[in-house]
Design goal:
heterotrimer, A: mainly alpha, two-stranded antiparallel sheet, 70% helix, 3% strand, C: mainly alpha, Helix Hairpins
């Protein structure tokens, strides 16, 4: 029951905030903050009481309630180690997002917090759902409030960015829905039970071709959400144009729902097809790492740079998931947590900077350390985290992923490790252009105040703690991950394999030679919207 | 007492943390007190721990202190644990002791800087990471220290961040060392896949069983580890960052870029010596790299006009000697030279720092001169340092350490006469550029007068290091001078004994005589060309060969052309991401179709009627006839 | 004398075509309405001729329906035309073109 209350609490507080805006502007902020704090406390309580992972059953707790029995749809929620970690991240980043937008959002505050909390509720639903229909429902619930967040409180090109985000995610989500329906129908035809229940669908026997197609539907939805090249185009615009809280939640949480979906749904539901897809996926992961890094290096818009950093780090996640070993998988879970913290922090810094100097162009920054030493120091910590400095959380995650995928495919891992050098290049560029060097313009700005320092210090403590004491997080992830790896192996061995292919598949050092022709359309997109599309100005 | 090993590492970190947290609340004096005090306490503690360790473990068995388990994933379970044996004891002694002296020096050197607190934060952080590196008991913790010192080096080189050139030098250092670290990281992967542990001692014990002598895997792993060492120790081909790193304050150059961080590569190779012994090709590579580097850097040092750049190239060259020693299997000789080099190079950098400081940031030696009367302590200590660097026979420590390497480069079982000749040529160059530096800086016409005098805090470290540069060598006397070898006995409790090859007729004494003659002739040559000569107070004119050497054999141009510019170019042309254009193209297509179709909605009612009629006729036709 | 069904149908078709042409060609909205009337009557004629050919009363019943419907339609149509005229101050349908996409 407590799981259902988590979602209901967030939605309720969202509605209350919207209403409370009639009285004054502080009340919605307080209400939403209280709601997310309560959620964090509940998650912490669950962690402390059941933190050793689940016992006999797979789930720490679960909740079932029938919804549309005619179609086999239930409200089925369950939490295991992986979801617990993700919930902790959700509430933590949610609190910080609300605190970061305390002074930034000045109009329609109630509606802003309503949207924010509904996004968090949708994300919580995604991480908790054990019913495929409910999962898709929550997936869509995440989308629409985020669309509003970007298009109403965003920056100068917000409508274009919001549309792009919505179309990409919606279209890929529809492909996933087709796959869900396909799975539902096949299962129903084989066993006579038409259900969307995740645990019952796990053992479905599917013909190999169909399984690959169904898996592809899921995979495309999750890869788009995870912003893998070549489906990453929505991310830079969405992150750049969103308000700070929107960027933090986008980068910290929404991207992770894609990774979560891959781990929770794709690998257990389609083990053979996943193994077939693995070489392609690992290649895509490595391409994301390097291409994202290359693009990050070239940007002059600070938030766009940080957005491409996300693309690069998500490549590591894709690489790790399809390495199919425990070490890489735990690295992936660690990376999900750690990336949320470090990139969220970078976005908060970028947002704070934008609030003060009203530009994101790094060509107009420079030498800001002398004026804002605290911001500079915090920037240094998180820039070092982004480049994978040992002692901070990202290193643990990346080294686990790399060692794990080295066991699976040596060549690709070596190429991926070059990504670490690339990370150094773009990370140091941030420090140099923003905080060091000559001042390009004489800004009069205030340094971080009490509230902002509070946010940044909690984030730094988190990232250092994750770097030096990763054991609690890794142990929590282990219980969830071992069951996947074990289940995946078992299922594959149990399945009738028509083509007699041996498992595990041999290492394919297939370098994806895709020739992408440069598009010759030079049209400037004019959506007939009042906001001018001047992306090329940055 | 030796249980306090962790405290040695914790003290500098604690100092740094306290300075960070207390922010601007502390007075400058307190900042300095904490900054210098933490490292000095660590130094004192090192002595106690060292003595206690040696008493408890006379045979050199390692003492391992585990703090906590870092992680435990799929067989990888590194601990945060410290491993004390004779080699790491030697290193922590040098790091803390020389570090404490340099911190003391910088208390006065950096006193007027507004970033004083930030300086000590970074310096303490550096000492903490360096100690972690040399005390790590597993490769992952070593890697933590490795990257940590790289970070602090970046922060300290770019300390005066307002000048973008300093930021550029700092980034260059970080990125070049990171390229080397790429190899080290992949080496870690290979080690883990093969040994299922990253604990160093476990790997070293298991390696000979798993990899036969000369095996390909051992070679690959050794070369990968070597690439990391090359980056950090600024050897060919990754040496380009060190001369530019001189943009940082002089204490930074003294601590990081002469005594400690750049010797991390030497430490790594010494620590994983078993792997290199299993891969003779790799060890030969170390030798060749060392020999080549010492010559390249020596020639470059000879043509510099910036006093700190002379010292930077000198460091590269001397580390080349250490690599040469490691390559021929002269493990304890390499460590010995590391220790002595730390003393005299730190001394030289501190002295150069004083000269630059008193002459208001003048780096060009040709604009100095006549300082020997005005800065007597600085002059004499600098002279002692230069003499030690040139291996002035018998009285300087450098003679004992460098000569040992020269002898073993011929006499060890992997040595050869060519190596000895290269090292000898290097020795001549060393003496030449060292004394060129002394004569240009301290003698001749006084082109600038010092504006201030160094105080006690800056003089004491100079004196201490000068004394060490003189008497430090006496703990390792060669065979023909009494064979008093406590140092190599000490080191050889952990590292292998150097195997000797056949030396034919030649004795060590003959070699010492030759190298003594070479060193002294280098000094004389410097005297002839540079003593009291009327040079113009500007950068000297160079012919094209000298210019080539001056540019450090122009590796910068090479790397810029083949690596830097292509990457920048590739990034810039695709700045707006051509994949984005594909999606925008899709959107444009949709808009185009919209435009075409909206042309049918023109509001002309009669047109609609016509279309209606035609449609009806067609539909009827189809229904009736098809 | 008997009129053959072909001739009746031919007349109905000719009348229908006349009406259709009038509808398509005329600009004046009242004439368009008149043309629609002609088409409706032509259809009615076709029904009657067919009814007499089959010797059933159905054709004439249909004609009554059509006539009623035509009358209603003219009433509504004329009301709309008056509204249109008040808006456009003209009976030219070419002027009623503001609903474009």
């Amino acid at each position: 029951m407590i799981l259902a209350w988590l979602i209901i609490l967030l939605m309720g507080c969202g509605l209350l905030s919207w209403l409370a805006a009639r009285w004054n502007n502080i009340l919605p902020r307080i209400i939403s903050l209280a709601g997310v704090v309560v959620q964090l406390l509940v998650v912490v309580w669950l962690w402390i009481n059941h933190g050793q992972g689940s016992g006999a059953s797979r789930w720490i707790t679960s909740y079932t309630h029938s919804w549309i029995p005619a179609f086999g749809i239930q409200i089925k929620l369950g939490v295991d180690g992986l979801s617990l970690l993700m919930l902790a991240l959700t509430s933590f980043l949610g609190i910080l997002a609300i605190l970061a937008s305390w002074k930034e959002i000045k109009d329609r505050v109630g509606f802003f917090h309503f949207n924010l909390l509904f996004v968090l509720a949708g994300i919580t639903g995604v991480f908790l759902s054990l019913d495929l229909f409910l999962f898709y429902f929550s997936w869509e619930v995440m989308l629409i409030p985020m669309y509003f967040l970007i298009s109403i409180w965003g920056n100068e090109n917000r409508v274009y960015a919001a549309y792009k985000f919505f179309l990409f995610t919606q279209a890929s989500g529809l492909l996933m829905f087709l796959s869900i329906l396909g799975l539902y129908l096949i299962h129903g035809r084989h066993t006579g039970i038409y259900t969307f229940d995740y645990e019952q669908l796990l053992g479905t026997v599917i013909a190999q071709q169909t399984a690959f197609l169904l898996m592809l539907g899921f995979v495309i939805a999750f890869i788009v959400k995870l912003s893998t090249v070549p489906f990453h185009s929505w991310l830079p615009d969405a992150h750049t144009q969103a308000p700070t809280a929107g960027s933090v939640i986008l980068a910290g949480l929404l991207l992770k729902t894609g990774a979560y979906g891959l781990i929770r749904f794709v690998l257990p539901l389609f083990p053979q097809a996943s193994h077939q897809f693995a070489p392609m996926a690992m290649n895509l992961g490595v391409i994301s790492i390097l291409y994202g890094a290359k693009l990050a290096f070239a940007q002059t818009d600070l938030k766009r740079l940080i957005a491409y950093i996300s693309v690069s780090h998500m490549g590591f996640i894709l690489l790790g998931i399809y390495a199919f070993n425990q070490m890489a998988m735990q690295g992936v879970v660690m990376q999900m947590v750690v990336h949320g913290v470090s990139t969220g922090a970078l976005f908060i810094i970028a947002g704070a900077l934008h609030e003060r100097i009203h530009t994101r162009d790094i060509g107009q920054m420079g030498g800001l350390w002398s004026k804002m030493p605290r911001m500079g120091a915090m920037g240094l910590v998180f820039v070092m985290a982004s480049l994978g400095l040992p002692g901070l959380g990202n290193f643990v995650a990346e080294i686990l992923i790399l060692i794990g995928s080295f066991a699976a495919n040596k060549t690709l891992t070596i190429v991926a490790t070059i990504g670490l050098v690339a990370a150094t290049i773009y990370s140091l560029r941030i420090m140099q252009k923003v905080f060091y060097g000559k001042e390009q313009k004489q800004w009069t700005v205030a340094d971080f105040g009490f509230r902002e320092m509070g946010i940044m210090i909690s984030l730094s403590v988190a990232i250092i703690w994750l770097g030096l004491f990763p054991a609690p997080v890794l142990n929590l992830a282990k219980s969830a991950v071992v069951s996947f790896a074990g289940m995946t192996n078992k299922q594959v061995q149990a399945m009738p394999d028509g083509n007699n292919r041996k498992y595990p598949a041999k290492n394919h050092s297939v370098i994806c030679m895709t020739v992408i022709r440069k598009n010759s359309l030079n049209n400037h997109i004019d959506l007939k919207a009042p906001i001018k599309d001047d992306r090329t100005g940055y | 007492m030796k249980e306090l090993l962790w405290l040695i590492v914790a003290l500098p970190f604690a100092g740094s943390l306290i300075l960070v947290i207390t922010g601007k609340g502390l007075s400058r004096f307190t900042c300095v007190l904490i900054g210098v005090g933490s490292v000095s306490l660590a130094a004192i503690l090192t002595m106690f721990v060292g003595v206690d360790y040696l008493n408890a473990n006379p045979t050199g068995t390692p003492y391992i202190e585990t703090l906590w388990q870092w992680m435990n994933v799929g067989g990888l379970s590194p601990d945060i644990a410290f491993h004390l044996d004779t080699v790491s004891l030697c290193f922590i002694f040098v790091v803390t002791f020389v570090g404490a002296l340099i911190h003391l020096y910088s208390a006065q050197f950096m006193w007027k800087e507004e970033g004083l607190r930030r300086f000590f934060i970074y310096m303490n952080l550096f000492v903490g990471f360096m100690l972690t590196l040399v005390l790590a008991d597993n490769m992952l913790l070593l890697y933590l220290g490795w990257e940590g010192v790289g970070l602090c080096s970046y922060l300290l080189i770019g300390f005066w961040y307002k000048d973008p050139a300093n930021g550029y030098a700092a980034r260059k250092a970080f990125i070049v060392t990171r390229i080397g670290d790429l190899g080290l990281t992949i080496g870690l992967f290979v080690l883990f896949i093969n040994f299922h542990t990253l604990n160093i001692q476990a790997i070293l014990t298991a390696a000979p069983g798993k990899w036969p002598l000369g095996s390909g895997m051992a070679l690959v792993t050794a070369l990968l580890l070597l690439s990391g060492a090359l980056g950090k120790s600024a050897q060919l081909p990754l040496q380009t960052w060190l001369p530019d790193a001189m943009a940082g304050p002089s204490p930074v150059s003294a601590l990081i870029h002469s005594a400690t961080m750049v010797t991390a590569g030497v430490y790594l190779i010494a620590r994983t010596h078993v792997l290199f012994e299993l891969a003779p090709v790799a060890q030969a590579t170390i030798t060749i790299v060392g020999a080549a580097t010492l010559l390249v850097a020596g020639l470059a040092a000879l043509n510099q006009h910036d006093i700190k750049r002379v010292l930077a190239y000198s460091t590269i060259s001397q580390i080349g000697y250490m690599f040469l020693a490691l390559g021929v299997g002269a493990w304890s000789a390499a460590i010995f030279h590391f220790m002595i080099h730390a003393f005299f190079k730190a001394l030289l950098f501190l002295g150069a720092g004083i000269v630059i400081w008193v002459l208001d940031e003048e780096h060009n030696m040709f604009k100095m001169g006549g300082l020997w009367k005005k800065l007597p302590v600085t002059f004499w200590t600098f002279l002692i340092g230069a003499a030690s660097l040139s291996a002035l026979p018998l009285i300087t420590a450098g003679f004992y350490s460098k000569d040992k390497i020269l002898w073993l480069s011929y006499a060890s079982d992997k040595g050869s006469v060519w190596l000895w000749l290269a090292a000898l040529a290097g020795a001549f160059l060393t003496a030449l550029y060292a004394f060129r530096m002394v004569f240009l800086t301290f003698f001749g016409d006084a082109k600038k007068t010092p504006s201030q005098k160094p105080g006690l805090l800056m003089t004491i470290p100079l004196l201490a290091l000068a004394v060490l540069s003189l008497i430090g060598g006496f703990i390792e006397l060669p065979a023909d001078m009494g064979h008093f070898t406590p140092f190599s006995d000490f080191i050889e409790k952990t590292l292998p004994v150097t195997l000797m090859g056949t030396t034919g007729h030649y004795t060590e004494f003959a070699f010492q005589l030759v190298s003594a003659i070479i060193a002294i002739s280098g000094m004389i040559a410097a005297y002839v060309y540079y003593f009291n000569k009327p040079f113009p107070a500007a950068e000297p004119k160079r012919n094209s060969i000298q210019q080539f050497f001056y540019l450090g054999w122009d590796f910068d141009l090479l790397y810029s052309t083949i690596i830097v510019q292509p990457i920048v170019f590739l990034s810039a042309i695709d700045k707006n991401d051509f994949i984005d254009k594909c999606y925008n193209g899709l959107a444009s297509l949709a808009i185009l179709i919209n435009k075409i179709l909206s042309a049918t909605q023109n509001g002309m009612v009669r047109r609609y009627a016509v279309v209606l009629a035609i449609g009806a006729i067609i539909t009827l036709t189809i229904i009736l006839y098809l | 004398m008997n009129i053959g069904i072909e001739q009746g149908m031919l007349l109905a078709a000719l009348l229908f075509l006349t009406g259709l042409m009038g509808l398509l060609v005329r600009r004046d909205v009242i004439f368009m309405l008149i043309s629609v009337e002609i088409m409706l009557n032509a259809a009615g004629l076709a029904f009657i001729v067919a009814g007499s050919a089959w010797k059933q009363a159905d054709g004439q019943v249909m004609f009554l329906f059509i006539l009623t419907m035509a009358a209603t339609e003219v009433a509504v149509g004329l009301a709309l035309i008056i509204q249109l005229f008040m808006k456009l101050k003209s009976v030219d349908t070419n002027k009623a073109n503001t609903m474009k996409g």
